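User: Quick sanity check before I run a bigger batch. Here is a single chain. Can you write out its predicted 3D structure?
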Amino acid sequence: MKREQLLEDIRFTAHVHPICGLLGPRQAGKTTLARMYAEKHYAGDYKFFDLENPADVSRLENPLLAIQQTSKTLIVIDEIQRMPNLFPVLRVIVDDPGNTHAFLILGSASRDLIRQSSESLAGRIGYIDVMPFSIEETHESKKLWLQGGFPRSYLADSLEKSINWRQNYITTFLEQDIPNLGFQIPPGQLRRFWLMLAHYHGQVFNASELGKSLAISHHTTKKYLDILTGTFMIRTLEPWFENLSKRQVKSPKIYFRDSGILHTLLGIETEDQLYNNPKVGASWEGFALEETVRLSRASSAECFFWSTYAEAELDLFMIKKGKKLGFEFKYTDNPKTTKSMSVALKDLNLDHLYIIVPLSNNYVLDEKISVCSLDNILTLY
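Assistant: Done. Predicted structure follows.
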């Protein structure tokens, strides 16, 4: 996978900011992408520091001296969240008028989780989210939906190896990655929360209900959700408030960002098991929603869901380039317009509403309602 769009994003960001940050979940391909970029644009004129390598950690015990003495132009620092004291050092270096270094830093935690450490780089760093493979990169949805987009899962030469990799990924994430971020949570307790969350995929998050099921406080459930969101495992979709005269849902909806991880937690291994599982519709909704958001290159601040207690709802409401767009995700081969769609069009003043389905063609249902295949969704952008 060449991931040309991400390489171009890095090139553009690096021309705007002295530091480019690649953020995304573990094993999403950030390191490979950084090496591809370095080879393409610096042809060996780069120095790579891996903060999971004890030797590199030792070299950076005196970071200012270590970096200033490096003759290479591009400095790549992997797993930056492991050494947060580097952020103010990088600010000192890039603010030096005589600085000749460019920086590419990689992290497995979101901006929210590393905010306090990275605040000193405000105005000096541009961030790019590096997520697992998407339809734009694979040009294929069926395998991507079942196995997810993590490179070692998607590219595994057998389904059995893909399943095994995902099982081990979940264990490593709980037992090593979370503690390495500074969170002292019993792995078994977080695993139970994660398993429970898999059954809430595509639903409104109810902290109190989950807390009672796990015998923990609702404050703790919110903390756990924040951790899984900040490590790119969960997408928290906030509600949109439009007509204040109607009672509207005010809690966020949650989605697993990688369908392969969701299926592993649900015990789904094969296509037959997926298609016959009662969660197949919710799984499809989350998979299609994630792909739609990524292909539209929309930020979290541009994406919402909308729901009223009068049972009118919209899976995804997006404000993009001044347009109000609505999306419904239906696992069906015969989508129809509904009263809820009509209410959404009127109340939200939508420019258009798209029904995303697992079909092979696009067609128009109404003046402002179209059916679109997920495989053809690229034609919308």
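The chain has two domains: 4-129, 135-380.

User: Great, the batch can go ahead then.
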